[in-house]
Amino acid sequence: MNWIDNVVRPKIRSFLNRREVEENLWVKCPESGEMVFYRDLEANQWVVPNSGYHMKIKAKDRLANFFDDGHYDTIALPAVPQDPLKFRDVKRYTDRLKENRTKTGMEDCVIVATGKLYDRPVTVAVQDFDFLGGSLGMAAGSAIVKGLETAVERKEPFVMFVASGGARMQEGILSLMQMPRTTVAVQRLKEAGLPYIVVITNPTTGGVTASYAMLGDIQIAEPGATIGFAGARVIEQTIREKLPKGFQTSEYLRDHGMVDMVVHRHNLRATIGSLVGILTKAAANDDIPASAPSRSLTMREVAVAAEGDGEDDLAADAPVAAHAE
Which sign does the torsion angle of CA 227, 184, 193, 282 carry? Predict the structure, then answer.
């Protein structure tokens, strides 16, 4: 045996037999530590099946799960200056924008779309936390204002899915000015007599909470979401008191009158569909489920939904399975 047999041939074999292994096949639940297969989690709308923990979901995935048959049209959003303050910390702001655009495939953190929800037209805006923490800057503020104006023009209800860490520090006062801008646009929607439904997701904090996120006619929150203006640690240090257990969670805010209802992600579509019908005084729609499950799908149900068969078996106890693909 020589170096060709001992070294070269094994190297060639390992190279030829190398398989591309997809990364992150398993995702760990932050609450229970459970490991869930990536595709099962995706089929279950990014809700951990056993613990019910609501993980962050991409804006495009949320829109696809929300609209009828996943069909929607995106609205062209106004262009804004890219780096008005020429801001730089560890990196240049323009470089951060490029990185996040490559990572998410979005121009900024907000997408606005129109489509139908149980055959009723609605305008929807979704804030994606993956893009710079869903921070509110000029582009996001202009997108939300455009979405509200579109709803007024089309005379449609407006649904806002919120997820944000607050104002975008790289834009300074220009970011803070988006708070009154969006507030005025919300007021115009209400003056037009159109419903404004807000869905607060995890997390929603800072200037976003202090503006359009808390101005809905109906305030809905996903389970376990963190909602607040300042952080809990900052509040404790300021008032020098220990905060109650569960402070700044969806359930705590519901119990104290800040949120109207806490709704499981699987039930959002049916719940909002019913609310839109009530608020617009539309005719009853028999396609909207009378009652939706309050639990997460089991692993078996997720697998069946992902395969696209066996839906009839699940329809009686889990009507969302058909929309989880």
Answer: negative
Q: What is the pLDDT of residues 131-173, one digit of tens each?
A: 999 999 999 999 999 999 999 999 999 999 999 999 999 999 9
Domain 56-288 sits in CATH at 3.90.226.10
In sequence order, what are the residues at sequence separation of 6 or more whose Cβ sits closer than 8 angstroms to the Cβ of residue 238? 230
Q: Are 206 and 167 in contact (CB under 8 A)?
A: yes
d(CA 172, CA 168): 7
Residues of the chain with CATH 3.90.226.10: 56-288
In three-state secondary structure terms, 244 is coil
CA end-to-end span of the chain: 55
| Residue 134 φ/ψ region, left for φ over 0, alpha for ψ in the -120 to 50 degree band, beta for the rest | left
Q: What is the torsional sign of CA 252, 255, 259, 264?
A: positive
In the DSSP assignment, the letter for residue 136 is B
Q: Are 26 and 34 in contact (CB under 8 A)?
A: no
